[in-house]
Predict the 3D structure of the following.
Amino acid sequence: MSKYSLTAFNSVYDGDAGVSIPFDEANTDYQAYLAWVAEGNTPNPYVQPPEPAPLTPQEKLAAAGLTVPELKALLGL
Amino acid sequence: MAATLQTSVIQATGSTTPNLTLDASGNATVGNTLVMGSSFKRNRIINGDMRVDQRRAGGALTPATNGDFLVDRFVFSGTQASKFFGGQNYNSVTPPAGFTSYAGLQCSTAYAVTASDFFGVIHRIEGLNTADLAWGTSSAKPVTLSFQVYSSLTGTFGGSLQNSASNRSYPFSYSIPVANTWTTINITIAGDTTGTWLATNGIGIQVFLGIGVGSTYSGAAGSWAATSYLSCTGATSVVGTAFATFYITGVQLEVGSVATPYERQIYSDQLAQCQRYYAVSNNLSPKGAASGSLAGLAAANNSIGTFWQYPVQMRATPTISIWQNGTQNRVRVTATGAVVTITTLTAASGGSYSTSSIIYDSGATPFTPGTSYDFDLIATAEL
């Protein structure tokens, strides 16, 4: 594992310091990152978060704040 | 022979009104515009009286680690770990008259510096605030550095001015004749007519006050050199004596060859100047309170939408850290108080004006969409 990890946006994460560093050449932390890369180091690649599991019909209903009887009444069933 | 001119009105030939009126109370009234050789904002040093300490509000650094800020804008530099304690008003000595604060360091473990060691206090001045000095040109203006210093040691001490690339430096020396007493130091330095001196939002001038500098970084005092000198040859090493102290305040760097009285600032103005380089969302608990000062709804299972406009425009797009109740990389579920750890923080920034608009946890999905989370942020754009 490298000290730095690429992220989804224009920034890197410094795992040692626990900070988000923007791609701004005036930022001294970014300057340090560029120097680290220039030394031949490679940051950890960005890891796409896993897709969330699809909601079940019950979860969708709960998210809508409806009960089954209310839904039936709404649909005239 | 000194003489005293006693008069109440000075009026130029051709003027129909007095240029300068003097009264018995010592007041001087200017009839029209007062034109100065330099600006009213004389001091290029920010927080020179050490009042602003956003990071610790007077808390001590035990130890002071390389890169730690003693107070805002004044950073400790040291090539060896665990040799100093320090902070704002460290050891609580009485500040010099007219001051309430100082930046203090005390050697915790005596150490004999090697050639490549250096210890000191650095103040980096932004190039936008030094461009008028015209350093690096034949029109380079002189500056005068003044400060109050207090040490348990006496003798010759040293420091330097440097450019951003550290390939131009001016070592200087000064004397502390009496131990444990505040001494006023005035040092006039000729402007550097060569070298590259940034006039941007990068480092314009670096002021270094040495407290133990090895021979590699020590040079003859009083002239410019094309290398990285941090102090003068033969300077006293504070780190060489266990429990030796070094305190400073009233630091001023101004155009010209004369040290004028320390330029006072309204506290809020001084704080705003510091916030260009370092800002916290929660000044009462910079590293996060139990209940965060900022909040946002999770827009997805790996992001929280939020907004924080910095107190002032920062020097550059800042580095962001996130805090909750003293712990880094943590947020709180507002409704339940449960805490959630962030493994990889991405703060999508609005540049140097406004803040991270999204907190993003790449590679994990710790958030519940639609749920409110609170936290505190720290933004850093130091030189």
Observations:
- Chain B has a mean pLDDT of 94.
- The CA atoms of residues 148 and 184 of chain B lie 5 Å apart.
- Chain B has one helix and 27 strands.
